[in-house]
Each structure stands twice: as C-alpha cells, then as structure tokens.
Amino acid sequence: MSAAAPRVRGWCPGALRPMLSGDGMLLRVRPMLGEVSAEAMRGLCDLAGRHGNGLIDLTSRANLQLRGVPEGDVTTLTDGLRALGLLDPDPEIESRRNIVIEAGWRPGDLSHRIATELMGLLGDLPKLPGKFGFAIDTGAEPAVNMVASDVAFELAADGGLILRADGAPLGRRLRIGEALQGLREMLDWFIATGGQDTGRMARHLRHAKLPPDWLAAAPRSYASLPKPGPSGADLTLGAAFGALEARAMITLLDSTGARALRPMPGRLFRLMGVADGAVEAARDAGFITTPDDPALAVHACPGAPYCAQAEAGTRALARQLCDQLGPRLTPGQSLHVSGCAKGCAWPRAADLTLVGRHGAYDLLRNAAPWDTPEARDLTDTDILKLTEF
Ligand code: SF4
C-alpha cells in the first residue's frame, strides 16, 4: 500500500545532463568498463573538492556522483571530467552508457568482451527509455544481480551464457558469439511490443509476454554477493552511506598503491592491485573493510538540506542509530533513514525504515519507504529512544 507519491523522473542524471538538487547541481559519472584509473580518481577527488561538496557518492548502479556543484561551475567541471577521460566524446553515447559490469572482470574474459562489444554498439541500438540499463555478470562469481538494469548477461547454473530480461525468472540461452545479436533481438522485441511507453523492462513484463524460448534457464544463485575484504591482489571496501570523502580517498590511493578503482553495486568499490597492508591502510582512512561492519546495514540518502525533495535530515540521525542499534543488528537486518518516501538509498523493505515528512519522521517496520507507516510525526528524540527494531 502506498502512503505517498514521491516525484519520479523518467531519466537519470549524467555528467552531460546534470540535475538540479537541493544543494546545487548533481552530476553522475559512468566509468568506462566500470573502472577509474587511480590517476583519474585523484583528479575526480580534486574536482569534487573544488566544484562539489567534497564527497563522491557511490550509486546503487555502480556509478560515481558529484553533488553540491554551483550552476556556474558545471562547464568547468565537465571539461575536467572530459580531460580525465571519464566522458564519451559523443554526448548521445554518453547518455546511453548505462552499463554495470561485474567488478572482477579481467582483460579478454567474457564480461570484458561483451562490455567492449556493447559499448561499440550503443550508437546502433534502437532508441531506449532514459533509464534503460544493461548488466554484465558473467564472471567467476555472480556479483551484479541486475541492480536496476533492464537486461542482463548472466551465466546459468551449468555455466552457459544467458540473456535475461528484468522481471523474468529465466533467461534465453545464447552461444557466446551471438551475445550481442541476442541483445539486439530482445531490444527490438521490447520496442515492438510497446516498451518505450512502459519505460522499464520489469514494468513492461507485467503485460507483455516474452517468447517462450527466452525463458529457458535460471541464472546462478545470488545468495552470496561480494562483500568487503581481500580477493587476491584486489580489495573490496565500503564507505558509510556510500559517500567517499575525497581527501580520504586520495590518502587511500596513496597508501594502498592501487592502480584503479571499480565501483560496485551495493555501494561498495574494489581497489585493483593493492600493496601489502592495504586492509589496515583502508581501515585507518575510515573505510569499511569487513562484511560484519554495522554501517553496511544502515542506509541513508543525503536528505535535507542536500536534496530538493527531502523533508528531513537523514545521515546525522542514521549515524546515531548505527551507533545505538548497529551492534545488535543480526546478519541480513537493515535500517534505512530516507529524506522522503522515494527511498533512493534503499528502494525496498528494511527491518526499520524512517521516512522524513514535514520535518519529522514516519516509522515503518519490514516495509518500504512508500508503504503505510505504523507511527507518524516522530522526532529525533523519539527515535533515539528506540532500543530495538
Ligand atoms: S529519497 Fe532522499 S535523495 Fe531520494 S528524493 Fe527523497 S530525499 Fe532526495
């Protein structure tokens, strides 16, 4: 049941299509092949400090976001992003490059080959709705789980390649050499059956039926997704609320010797090729290094005064709740403080959700931010008296 109707836009902001927010302009950077070199990351940190609020947000779709940018700084900032190699030369391609690739890819492997081929094909694909996205999850372990994408290349339990439409439990089997042809056919089907009007694949599938042979095999289980910790020479880390503090990030890059950073779904990121002692260096720089850190289970969007739609502050309260309730969180539990009912930071049910409304908070248990609250108009003080979920 829905209690409120937050404003939903039919497009995502990009680096060349900034969005006005409560604290200025917001620009989203979509790293090519999901990777930013250490040098470009240092440059991005510098731009965030000079033109933004000093933070780089990890988005749920594994992009990087700068916010708090004065309108007059946008051109200088986009010039800076272009100089760092973070933008496609063609603005149309840049707007279509909604691709999430699993962070474990290696040059020449299946994920890398599909992503490279897809990037080269973007200009030839049919015109798709603004939020339409692609996931490439064909690495050694399942890692992306669609994350707000509309179509995903995945592996079936037997290791075969499949292409799955979001909202469908099963995917179409494809031979490796025909991956992009299969994608093109699915996109043509989406357009021909009216997908442009419904906007997203999952919504479209509520009414449209996929061809039966496109429902042939289930993807691998997503029961276990990547978590903070070392994997070979790489290191997966988190940051509270997915906010990377620019100066801390530069310290991290310097102290770990990482050659690149790959943003990941779930507001994590992977440092590629780190030196010995990187875990300790990351911990010292304030990043999340272990899967049991309670901060990973606490979600909060920027809230007021940073987002124009926010009806209350979020992160200060979330930090206090994390200190108070975090140690008692059991695995799988989650806590969400949202500036409004849109629920950007955790658009699904949490064990405890607080939604800003008219400067106070509505409280929901085991519900999404847009559901009907069980208590309304709570103050920070009321909420901090909570001793359990
Ligand atoms: S959930 Fe948060 S970030 Fe999203 S629109 Fe509402 S206040 Fe803004």
Would you give an account of this structure?
By secondary structure, this protein is of the alpha+beta class. The protein has three domains: 19-89 and 234-288, Sulfite Reductase Hemoprotein, domain 2; 104-214; 295-384, Sulfite Reductase Hemoprotein, domain 1. 25% of the residues lie in helices and 23% in strands. The protein contains eleven helices and 20 strands. It has helices at residues 38-51, 74-83, 91-96, 110-121, 179-192, 195-198, 201-204, 246-256, 278-284, 315-325, 380-384, and strands spanning 19-21, 24-29, 36-37, 55-58, 64-69, 99-101, 134-137, 151-155, 161-165, 172-173, 229-231, 234-238, 243-245, 260-264, 268-272, 298-300, 335-338, 350-357, 360-367, 375-378. Strands 1-2-5-4-13 form a five-stranded antiparallel sheet. Strand 8 (151-155) and strand 9 form a beta hairpin. Helix 1 runs antiparallel to helix 2 (74-83). The model is unreliable at 1-6 (pLDDT under 50). It binds iron/sulfur cluster. GO terms for molecular function: 4 iron, 4 sulfur cluster binding; heme binding; metal ion binding; oxidoreductase activity. This is CobG. Residues 18-83 form the Nitrite/Sulfite reductase ferredoxin-like domain.
